[in-house]
Design a protein that fits this description.
Layout (H helix, E strand, L loop, with lengths): L1 H5 L5 H14 L14 H4 L16 H12 L4 H14 L4 H13 L3 H14 L4 H13 L3 H14 L4 H13 L3 H14 L5 H12 L3 H26 L5
Helix pairs in contact: 4-5, 5-6, 6-7, 7-8, 8-9, 8-10, 9-10, 10-11, 10-12, 11-12, 12-13
Amino acid sequence: MKNICKLRSYNSLFCLIIFASLIIYGCGKEELPEVAVVPEEATKVEEKPIEKLPALGNDAEGYFNFGVETIKFGKFDLAIQAWEKAIQIDPTMVKAYNYMGRAYYTQGMMDGAISAYKKTVELEPANPETYINLGIAYRYNEEFDAAINELNKAIELNPLSALAYDEIGMALLKMQKNDEAIAAYKNAAAIDPEFPQPHNHLGVVYLMKGMSKEASAEFELYEKLMANKRAKQAKIMGGTPH
Protein backbone atom coordinates (compact mmCIF):
# COMPACT_ATOMS: atom_id res chain seq x y z
CA MET A 1 0.00 0.00 0.00
CA LYS A 2 2.92 2.32 0.64
CA ASN A 3 4.03 1.97 -2.96
CA ILE A 4 0.55 2.84 -4.18
CA CYS A 5 0.38 5.96 -2.08
CA LYS A 6 3.83 7.14 -3.19
CA LEU A 7 2.87 7.27 -6.84
CA ARG A 8 2.79 10.89 -7.94
CA SER A 9 -0.19 10.35 -10.26
CA TYR A 10 -2.48 9.60 -7.35
CA ASN A 11 -3.49 12.00 -4.66
CA SER A 12 -3.95 11.08 -1.03
CA LEU A 13 -7.72 10.86 -1.35
CA PHE A 14 -7.49 8.27 -4.12
CA CYS A 15 -5.01 6.24 -2.05
CA LEU A 16 -7.47 6.26 0.79
CA ILE A 17 -10.25 4.97 -1.50
CA ILE A 18 -8.09 2.10 -2.78
CA PHE A 19 -7.03 1.19 0.75
CA ALA A 20 -10.65 1.09 1.90
CA SER A 21 -11.61 -1.09 -1.08
CA LEU A 22 -8.92 -3.62 -0.24
CA ILE A 23 -10.13 -3.81 3.33
CA ILE A 24 -13.78 -4.29 2.31
CA TYR A 25 -13.41 -6.68 -0.66
CA GLY A 26 -10.09 -8.34 0.10
CA CYS A 27 -7.29 -9.08 -2.34
CA GLY A 28 -9.25 -11.48 -4.54
CA LYS A 29 -7.89 -14.66 -2.93
CA GLU A 30 -10.56 -17.39 -2.61
CA GLU A 31 -10.94 -19.07 0.73
CA LEU A 32 -10.81 -22.86 0.81
CA PRO A 33 -14.12 -24.53 1.72
CA GLU A 34 -14.29 -26.12 5.10
CA VAL A 35 -13.96 -29.92 5.11
CA ALA A 36 -16.57 -31.72 7.16
CA VAL A 37 -15.01 -34.08 9.66
CA VAL A 38 -16.90 -37.38 9.91
CA PRO A 39 -16.75 -38.92 13.36
CA GLU A 40 -14.85 -42.21 13.40
CA GLU A 41 -17.85 -43.99 14.89
CA ALA A 42 -19.97 -43.11 11.83
CA THR A 43 -17.56 -44.83 9.42
CA LYS A 44 -17.71 -48.20 11.13
CA VAL A 45 -19.89 -50.87 9.46
CA GLU A 46 -22.11 -52.63 11.91
CA GLU A 47 -21.07 -56.27 12.09
CA LYS A 48 -23.74 -58.93 12.17
CA PRO A 49 -23.55 -61.20 15.18
CA ILE A 50 -22.17 -64.68 14.46
CA GLU A 51 -24.91 -67.26 14.79
CA LYS A 52 -24.15 -70.09 17.15
CA LEU A 53 -25.72 -73.39 17.99
CA PRO A 54 -28.23 -73.37 20.83
CA ALA A 55 -27.21 -75.06 24.05
CA LEU A 56 -29.24 -78.27 23.93
CA GLY A 57 -27.06 -80.43 26.14
CA ASN A 58 -27.07 -84.07 25.04
CA ASP A 59 -30.23 -83.75 22.95
CA ALA A 60 -29.06 -85.26 19.64
CA GLU A 61 -32.57 -85.14 18.20
CA GLY A 62 -32.83 -81.47 19.12
CA TYR A 63 -29.61 -80.63 17.27
CA PHE A 64 -30.75 -82.68 14.29
CA ASN A 65 -34.07 -80.83 14.09
CA PHE A 66 -32.31 -77.48 14.50
CA GLY A 67 -30.15 -78.35 11.49
CA VAL A 68 -33.20 -79.32 9.44
CA GLU A 69 -34.89 -75.99 10.16
CA THR A 70 -31.68 -73.99 9.68
CA ILE A 71 -30.90 -75.40 6.23
CA LYS A 72 -34.30 -74.15 5.01
CA PHE A 73 -32.95 -70.60 5.33
CA GLY A 74 -29.76 -71.41 3.44
CA LYS A 75 -27.58 -71.43 6.56
CA PHE A 76 -25.41 -74.28 5.36
CA ASP A 77 -22.50 -73.97 7.80
CA LEU A 78 -24.73 -73.70 10.84
CA ALA A 79 -26.82 -76.69 9.75
CA ILE A 80 -23.68 -78.80 9.26
CA GLN A 81 -22.51 -77.82 12.74
CA ALA A 82 -25.86 -78.90 14.17
CA TRP A 83 -25.75 -82.31 12.49
CA GLU A 84 -22.13 -82.82 13.48
CA LYS A 85 -23.13 -82.08 17.07
CA ALA A 86 -26.00 -84.57 16.82
CA ILE A 87 -23.61 -87.23 15.51
CA GLN A 88 -21.11 -86.45 18.24
CA ILE A 89 -23.82 -87.22 20.78
CA ASP A 90 -25.28 -90.17 18.85
CA PRO A 91 -22.76 -91.65 16.36
CA THR A 92 -25.42 -94.04 15.02
CA MET A 93 -27.83 -91.32 13.82
CA VAL A 94 -28.08 -92.30 10.15
CA LYS A 95 -30.51 -89.53 9.23
CA ALA A 96 -28.00 -86.89 10.35
CA TYR A 97 -25.38 -88.38 8.01
CA ASN A 98 -27.97 -88.49 5.23
CA TYR A 99 -28.84 -84.82 5.66
CA MET A 100 -25.17 -83.90 5.78
CA GLY A 101 -24.52 -85.86 2.60
CA ARG A 102 -27.43 -84.19 0.84
CA ALA A 103 -26.33 -80.72 1.99
CA TYR A 104 -22.76 -81.26 0.81
CA TYR A 105 -24.07 -82.69 -2.48
CA THR A 106 -26.27 -79.67 -3.21
CA GLN A 107 -23.29 -77.39 -2.51
CA GLY A 108 -21.15 -79.35 -4.98
CA MET A 109 -18.86 -80.49 -2.15
CA MET A 110 -18.61 -84.12 -3.22
CA ASP A 111 -15.81 -85.14 -0.87
CA GLY A 112 -18.00 -84.19 2.08
CA ALA A 113 -21.00 -85.96 0.54
CA ILE A 114 -19.00 -89.13 -0.08
CA SER A 115 -17.67 -89.13 3.48
CA ALA A 116 -21.17 -88.75 4.94
CA TYR A 117 -22.74 -91.38 2.68
CA LYS A 118 -19.97 -93.85 3.49
CA LYS A 119 -21.08 -93.65 7.11
CA THR A 120 -24.68 -94.42 6.13
CA VAL A 121 -23.47 -97.52 4.26
CA GLU A 122 -21.47 -98.54 7.30
CA LEU A 123 -24.46 -98.07 9.61
CA GLU A 124 -27.12 -99.53 7.27
CA PRO A 125 -25.38 -102.06 5.01
CA ALA A 126 -28.69 -103.74 4.11
CA ASN A 127 -30.30 -100.53 2.81
CA PRO A 128 -29.93 -100.20 -1.00
CA GLU A 129 -30.65 -96.46 -0.86
CA THR A 130 -27.39 -95.83 0.98
CA TYR A 131 -25.40 -97.38 -1.88
CA ILE A 132 -27.36 -95.40 -4.47
CA ASN A 133 -26.64 -92.12 -2.68
CA LEU A 134 -22.96 -92.98 -2.42
CA GLY A 135 -22.86 -94.08 -6.05
CA ILE A 136 -24.42 -90.82 -7.24
CA ALA A 137 -21.89 -88.81 -5.23
CA TYR A 138 -19.05 -90.83 -6.76
CA ARG A 139 -20.45 -90.24 -10.25
CA TYR A 140 -20.63 -86.48 -9.74
CA ASN A 141 -17.07 -86.64 -8.46
CA GLU A 142 -16.13 -88.39 -11.73
CA GLU A 143 -15.13 -91.58 -9.91
CA PHE A 144 -17.11 -93.72 -12.33
CA ASP A 145 -15.78 -97.17 -11.44
CA ALA A 146 -16.48 -96.54 -7.76
CA ALA A 147 -19.95 -95.28 -8.65
CA ILE A 148 -20.81 -98.40 -10.66
CA ASN A 149 -19.47 -100.60 -7.88
CA GLU A 150 -21.77 -99.01 -5.27
CA LEU A 151 -24.78 -99.02 -7.60
CA ASN A 152 -24.31 -102.72 -8.34
CA LYS A 153 -24.38 -103.35 -4.58
CA ALA A 154 -27.72 -101.57 -4.48
CA ILE A 155 -29.01 -103.82 -7.27
CA GLU A 156 -27.85 -106.91 -5.39
CA LEU A 157 -30.04 -105.80 -2.50
CA ASN A 158 -32.88 -104.59 -4.72
CA PRO A 159 -32.85 -106.01 -8.28
CA LEU A 160 -35.86 -103.83 -9.14
CA SER A 161 -34.14 -100.50 -8.54
CA ALA A 162 -34.74 -98.57 -11.75
CA LEU A 163 -32.83 -95.60 -10.35
CA ALA A 164 -29.70 -97.70 -9.77
CA TYR A 165 -29.73 -98.94 -13.37
CA ASP A 166 -30.30 -95.42 -14.68
CA GLU A 167 -27.37 -94.11 -12.65
CA ILE A 168 -25.15 -96.94 -13.91
CA GLY A 169 -26.09 -95.91 -17.43
CA MET A 170 -25.04 -92.33 -16.73
CA ALA A 171 -21.68 -93.46 -15.37
CA LEU A 172 -21.11 -95.72 -18.38
CA LEU A 173 -22.01 -92.89 -20.73
CA LYS A 174 -19.37 -90.69 -19.09
CA MET A 175 -16.90 -93.52 -19.67
CA GLN A 176 -17.93 -93.51 -23.36
CA LYS A 177 -19.31 -97.05 -23.09
CA ASN A 178 -22.41 -96.17 -25.06
CA ASP A 179 -23.73 -99.66 -25.82
CA GLU A 180 -23.44 -100.70 -22.17
CA ALA A 181 -25.14 -97.46 -21.17
CA ILE A 182 -28.04 -98.23 -23.52
CA ALA A 183 -28.46 -101.65 -21.92
CA ALA A 184 -28.55 -100.10 -18.44
CA TYR A 185 -31.11 -97.47 -19.47
CA LYS A 186 -33.30 -100.13 -21.07
CA ASN A 187 -33.21 -102.15 -17.85
CA ALA A 188 -34.32 -99.08 -15.89
CA ALA A 189 -37.17 -98.39 -18.33
CA ALA A 190 -38.31 -102.03 -18.26
CA ILE A 191 -38.37 -102.12 -14.45
CA ASP A 192 -40.35 -98.88 -14.15
CA PRO A 193 -42.26 -97.94 -17.33
CA GLU A 194 -43.43 -94.69 -15.67
CA PHE A 195 -39.86 -93.51 -14.97
CA PRO A 196 -39.16 -90.68 -17.48
CA GLN A 197 -35.39 -90.15 -17.12
CA PRO A 198 -34.13 -93.36 -18.79
CA HIS A 199 -35.94 -92.42 -22.00
CA ASN A 200 -34.37 -88.98 -22.05
CA HIS A 201 -30.95 -90.53 -21.50
CA LEU A 202 -31.59 -93.11 -24.21
CA GLY A 203 -32.48 -90.30 -26.59
CA VAL A 204 -29.16 -88.61 -25.88
CA VAL A 205 -27.14 -91.78 -26.53
CA TYR A 206 -29.05 -92.51 -29.73
CA LEU A 207 -28.30 -88.99 -30.97
CA MET A 208 -24.63 -89.54 -30.23
CA LYS A 209 -24.76 -92.73 -32.29
CA GLY A 210 -26.51 -90.97 -35.18
CA MET A 211 -29.79 -92.83 -34.59
CA SER A 212 -32.07 -89.81 -34.93
CA LYS A 213 -35.31 -91.77 -35.44
CA GLU A 214 -34.81 -93.80 -32.27
CA ALA A 215 -33.75 -90.66 -30.39
CA SER A 216 -36.92 -88.80 -31.39
CA ALA A 217 -39.10 -91.69 -30.22
CA GLU A 218 -37.39 -91.74 -26.82
CA PHE A 219 -37.64 -87.97 -26.39
CA GLU A 220 -41.35 -88.05 -27.24
CA LEU A 221 -41.93 -90.80 -24.70
CA TYR A 222 -39.96 -88.84 -22.12
CA GLU A 223 -42.14 -85.75 -22.65
CA LYS A 224 -45.30 -87.85 -22.39
CA LEU A 225 -44.19 -89.47 -19.13
CA MET A 226 -43.14 -86.11 -17.70
CA ALA A 227 -46.57 -84.66 -18.55
CA ASN A 228 -48.23 -87.59 -16.78
CA LYS A 229 -45.99 -87.10 -13.77
CA ARG A 230 -46.80 -83.38 -13.56
CA ALA A 231 -50.52 -84.13 -13.86
CA LYS A 232 -50.34 -86.61 -10.97
CA GLN A 233 -48.41 -84.14 -8.84
CA ALA A 234 -50.89 -81.37 -9.61
CA LYS A 235 -53.78 -83.64 -8.67
CA ILE A 236 -52.15 -84.39 -5.33
CA MET A 237 -51.53 -80.68 -4.73
CA GLY A 238 -55.02 -79.74 -5.88
CA GLY A 239 -53.83 -77.58 -8.79
CA THR A 240 -53.34 -77.84 -12.53
CA PRO A 241 -50.18 -79.03 -14.32
CA HIS A 242 -47.92 -76.46 -15.98
